[in-house]
Amino acid sequence: METLAALKDRLRQDALLRRAAMDPLLRIEAGLTLAEHVAALELAPGCMVAGFWPIRDEIDPRPLMSALRERGHRLCLPVVSEPHLLFRVLERGATLQPAGFGTQAPGPDAEQVTPDVLLMPLAAFDSFGNRIGYGKGHYDKALAALERDRRRTCIGLAFEAQEVDRVPAEPHDRPLDGILTEAGFRRF
To answer: What pLDDT, on the 0 to 100 scale, is given for residue 27?
Structure first.
């Protein structure tokens, strides 16, 4: 019988293979399409939104982040750190540097902040709001720390091709509040 960890790993690998097989032009178009759905997110005015710098063949959140900035939201990017991710303000024109796990973020001189909303990368998701990350637990640990004082809004960003029938959720897995793909926004 397949263990829970093995099942998650298989689902992760299958979804990532589907993502990698997508036509590069369709991936670009999908990233641009995210910005067209910015109003559907219904974020509180002026809230701090944590985006992410795309790696490999992830959907590109930068057009959406630009649209959020135009709507008056402040932006930040995660930095891989111990004991969990930290977030630095992203100003227009900021110089970025390696931030761990292949990502980029503002350097240590940038203000460290606490996001209200997290736009989260993922490997796979299901229609119940469960997600599978890349297996390192960066967002799980960060959310556990961030949500000590209050709940944060977590929105997964992915391609439709990354959806699976069912993600086996464990007690420490925090479900998403919504998922945004090239097909639009779904709230859970």
So the answer is: 95
Q: What is the CATH number of the domain that holds 155?
A: 3.40.50.10420
Task: Write down the pTM of the prediction.
Answer: 0.95
Determine the structural domain holding residue 76 and report its residue range: 4-187
- Helix (H) or strand (E) holding 112, with range, is strand 112-113
Domain count, the chain: 1
Q: What does the angle CA 91 – CA 121 – CA 96 come to, to the nearest 5 degrees? A: 30
Q: Half-sphere exposure of 66 toward its Cβ, with a 13 Å CA cutoff?
A: 11
27-51 pLDDT, tens per residue?
999 999 999 999 999 999 999 999 9
Helices (H), the chain: 4-20, 24-36, 62-70, 138-146
Of the candidates 106, 109, 42, the residue with the CA atom closest to the CA atom of residue 73:
42
CA distance 45 to 47: 6
Dig out the tokens for 97 from the structure: 């540097």
Tokens of 172: 């420490």
Distances (CA, A) of 145 to 1, 15, 109, 153: 34, 28, 22, 14
